Amino acid sequence: MKLKSSNRFPRFFLLGLIGLVLLLVFFNPIKKKQSKYPEAPKIEKTTSLNALQLTFNEKSFKKIKDKRFKALSKGILETSDEDYVPATVTFQGESYKAEVRLKGDWTDHLVGDKWSFRVKLKGDETILGMRKFSIHHPQTRGFFYTAEWLYLKAIKREGLMGLRYDYVEGSIHVKGKNASNSINKNVGIYALEETFDKRTIESNSGKESVILKFSEDNFWNEVGKSIEVGSSMGYKWGDFMNYDLVSKTKYQILPFSEEKIVLDSTMFKYFRLSRKLLEDVYLNKRPIHEAFDVKKLAMQNAILNLFGAAHGTYIINLRFYYNPITSRLEPIAFDGNSGLKLKKYEHFLFLDKEKDTVYLKELAYALDKVRRPEYLNTLVAQYQDEMAAYEKPLKKEFFSKGFQKANLEYNQEMIKTELLRLKSKLGLNDIVIEADEPVGEIKIPEPSQWVNNKTILSGLPQKFQKQSVYKISRNSTTAPSYSVIANNKVNNGKQYRTSVILKKGDVGSLFGLRVQGDFPNRLDAIFDLANGKVKQTSTGGNFDNINATMKPLGDGWYQCVLSGTIKTSNVKIILGPTSGERQSKNWEGVTSQNGNVYIIPSSLKLEEVSE
Hints:
Elements: H1 8-27, E1 51-57, H2 58-74, E2 85-91, E3 94-102, E4 117-121, E5 132-136, H3 146-157, E6 165-175, E7 183-194, H4 198-203, E8 211-214, H5 217-233, H6 243-247, E9 253-255, H7 258-263, H8 265-282, H9 294-306, E10 319-323, E11 328-331, H10 357-370, H11 373-398, H12 405-426, E12 451-453, E13 455-464, E14 467-474, E15 482-489, E16 494-504, E17 510-516, E18 522-528, E19 533-540, E20 544-554, E21 557-566, E22 570-578, E23 596-608
Parallel strand pairs: 1-6
Antiparallel strand pairs: 1-2, 2-3, 3-4, 4-5, 5-7, 6-7, 8-9, 8-10, 10-11, 12-15, 13-14, 14-23, 15-22, 16-21, 16-23, 17-18, 17-22, 18-19, 20-21
Helix pairs in contact: 3-11, 9-10, 10-12
C-alpha cells in the first residue's frame, strides 16, 4: 500500500519566509526615492521685493555645480538643453515645477553665490506672465542697475518690442537626505529678465510669429580657443583672439524655438521669409526700408543712444521679430548695459549711410523727439516712484549710485549733434533746432566727467603751478586706449588751439592728442615728452592748417599745443599715452606696453584763435 505524502512542511516554510520579509520591511523601511521636484521650504524675506526661490535635490545641484566648475576652469560657460535639471521655483508663496540651468557667457555670471540661471516652467504655468526667464546679478546688465529697467520701459512706452524686467530677492535651497545635509542660502537681489518665446510677442501685442537671432557659436568658439591657448602659455587670452576673423564671419541666422518652428508649416514659412529679409540687409543686398519697419527701427535706435545702451548693438545681441501683417522685421531691445555715457553715436549695425536715406530720415525725426529735455523729464517722472522702490534695496546691497539722469542728458547732446548732421545731409528743413548761443569760452569738464576707454585717470598728491596733477595710464595692450572729452561746441570754419600741460611718466614718454569732428575729420599729434619735440602730426577729412608745438615749463613739464582749422560745430578732444610703434593717425591703437603720462587736467583748453 502506497503512503500518502504530506505538504505541511513546505506550507509552514513559506509562511515563515513571508513573515520574515514583513519583519524586515517593518524594521528597515524602503527608502523613498528623492523627488525630482522637491518640496520648497518657506522663504524668509529681508527686503520689500518679491521673493523667488530655487529648490534642487542633491543630484540636480551637483550637476549644476559641476557645470559651474567646468566653466570657471575654461573661462566661459557653454550651455545646451542637456544642462537643464529639475527644480522647484517658488514665487509669492506659490510653487512651480521647472527645468533650470546655469546662464551667461562670461564667468561674471558665476562668481560668489549669486549664479545666473535660465528657468523654464513646466506646462503652461507662468510667473509674471512669463514661462521662460532668466535671473542674474543686476550688474551683468550694467553698473547703473535700474537704467536697464527704465530703458525697457521707455522702449515699451513707444510701442516697440522689449522684454519684461523686474527685481526679486533670490534664495537657493538644496534638499538633502536630512536637515543637516540641506542648504539654505539667501543670495540677495536678482534681476529677472524675460527670454524669447511666443509670450514675449503676446506681451508686446504682436501676432504669433518668429523671433530671429544671429548664431553666437563662431564668436564663442574663437573666445574659447583663445582662452585655452593663452592660459596654457601664461598669457592673456585676448592676445590670441582674432577679432578680425570674427568680424568678417558670416553669421548664421537662427530662430528661437527652432524645433517647434520646423514642425509648424506656417511658422516655418515665416522663418524662411524673415531670414531672407535679414540676410539681404546683412549682406548689403537690400536697403533697410525694404526689410524693416523703419519708424520702429529708428525710434529703437534713438532710445538706445539716449540710454547709452551700445552693448545692444553687437551682432550677437541683436533680436528681431517678423511681423506677418506688415511683412517687415522689428527690433527687440535686449541686453543694453544701459545708463552709460556715449563715446560716439551708435548707428544700426547694418546701416549704409549713402543708400539708406529712407531710414535715416525716420531716424532724424526720432532723434528730434528724444533729444528734447521734456522727453527725458516726462519719462523719468512717469517711472520715478517705481524706480525709487527698486533702488532702495539695490543701493543697500550693492552701494550703487543707481540711475544717473545726468548721463542721459549728456547723451542728448550727442544725439543733437548727430541730428544736426542728418538735418544738413538730408535737407530736412521741417526739423527746427533752436539756435545755440554764440560760442564763448569753451569749458572743459572736470576729470570725473571724462570718458575713459581702457585708460585710468588717477589724482596724485603733488601740484604744479598750484594745479592738481593726475596720472593717465593705459590699461590694455590688446585694445585701443584713450580718454574722451566730447560735446565741445565750436564755430564752424574757425582756427582753434588745443593745449595741455604734460610730463613724462614712469613708462614711456609719448602722448597722443586729437581734435575730432565727424569721422574722418580730425587733427592729430604725437608729443615726445622725453626730448621736448613733436614726433608727428596728421590731418583727416576736411580739417586742415595743422600745427603743433611744445613749450618747456621746467622740471620736465611741457605745454603741448595742437592747432588747426575745424570745419564743424562740435568736436571731441581725444588724448592718452602712446608708444613708438604707432603713427599719429592711429596713436590710440594697440601698443606693446601700458605707458603713462603726468597731466594737469585743469590746463586743458580749447580756444578760438583770433585772426
